[in-house]
């Protein structure tokens, strides 16, 4: 089982769109048993796959642990499998959230996220997923501190515009702050690329130049800006269910992830 976090501390780079479509591609198109964990408080990944509201969420686990910490009796043990929305697509499950305030507070108050998440991991391993994709919020929080420590590697989407490229160094500063190696970043995905624009081409070259000496990183082909990609998410569909041309934009990144999963 491989664990990949999709992270950039700059918002608006297409992180949740990428997460939902990679998860759907792995599950629907290629048959990998995949779990998406949506830990962005906006829950866009969940919404882009048609999950608007749910009574099941990772919050249930932390509410249970918080009750134990405060000495309350927990009548019925909640396990992670009880919190997962199963078969949102064939081979695709999702563990979403109902807001991250209680989780963030729990981590700050107890410093026990690793213990709690360790128990979750044991349960997840029993469920035999091929891949876990975690959509991280675009910020430096206690939740992201723990998630970035937990994942095997990071997929870093970068919008091909100046502010997004300029902010790449912030990701590495954050990893350094957490005493995590820069090698955590495994994939760089140039995103929302418009080949008609000189600035987009220039920023794509800046991305390639920035990472050119890092042999451990795969820079995928740029994902072109397509209206159909946005439309699919708004309708609660993946690009693989909505538009062939749009799905082709995700395929190269998907192929890189599959190569990684098979290693």
TrEMBL record:
Gene3D superfamilies: P-loop containing nucleotide triphosphate hydrolases. Coiled coil: none annotated. Residues 1-178 form the AAA domain. Signal peptide: none annotated. CDD domains: ParAB_family (cd02042). InterPro entries: AAA_dom (IPR025669), DNA_Partitioning_ATPase (IPR050678), P-loop_NTPase (IPR027417). PANTHER family: COBYRINIC ACID AC-DIAMIDE SYNTHASE, P-LOOP CONTAINING NUCLEOSIDE TRIPHOSPHATE HYDROLASE. This is AAA domain-containing protein. It comes from Geosporobacter ferrireducens.
């Amino acid at each position: 089982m491989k664990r990949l976090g999709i992270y950039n501390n700059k918002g608006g780079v297409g992180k949740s769109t990428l997460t939902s479509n990679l998860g759907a591609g792995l599950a629907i198109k290629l048959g990998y048993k995949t779990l998406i964990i949506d830990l962005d408080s906006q829950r866009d990944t969940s919404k882009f796959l048609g999950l608007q509201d749910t009574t099941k969420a990772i919050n249930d686990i932390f509410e249970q642990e918080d009750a134990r910490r405060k000495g309350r009796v927990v009548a019925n043990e909640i396990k992670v499998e009880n919190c997962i929305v199963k078969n949102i697509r064939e081979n695709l499950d999702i563990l979403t959230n109902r807001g991250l305030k209680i989780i963030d507070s729990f981590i700050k108050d107890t410093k026990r996220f690793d213990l709690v998440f360790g128990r979750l991991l044991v349960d997840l391993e029993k469920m035999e997923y091929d891949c876990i994709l975690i959509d991280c919020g675009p910020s430096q929080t206690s939740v992201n501190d723990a998630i970035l420590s937990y994942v095997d590697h990071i997929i870093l989407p970068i919008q091909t515009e100046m502010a997004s490229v300029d902010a790449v160094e912030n990701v590495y500063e954050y990893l350094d702050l957490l005493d995590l190696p820069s090698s955590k970043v495994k994939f760089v995905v140039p995103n929302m690329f418009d080949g008609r624009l000189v600035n987009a081409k220039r920023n794509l070259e800046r991305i390639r130049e920035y990472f050119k000496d890092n042999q451990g990183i795969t820079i995928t082909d740029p994902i072109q800006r397509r209206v159909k990609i946005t439309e699919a998410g708004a309708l609660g569909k993946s690009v693989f269910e909505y538009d062939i041309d749009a799905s082709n934009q995700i395929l190269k990144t998907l192929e890189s992830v599959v190569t990684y999963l098979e290693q």
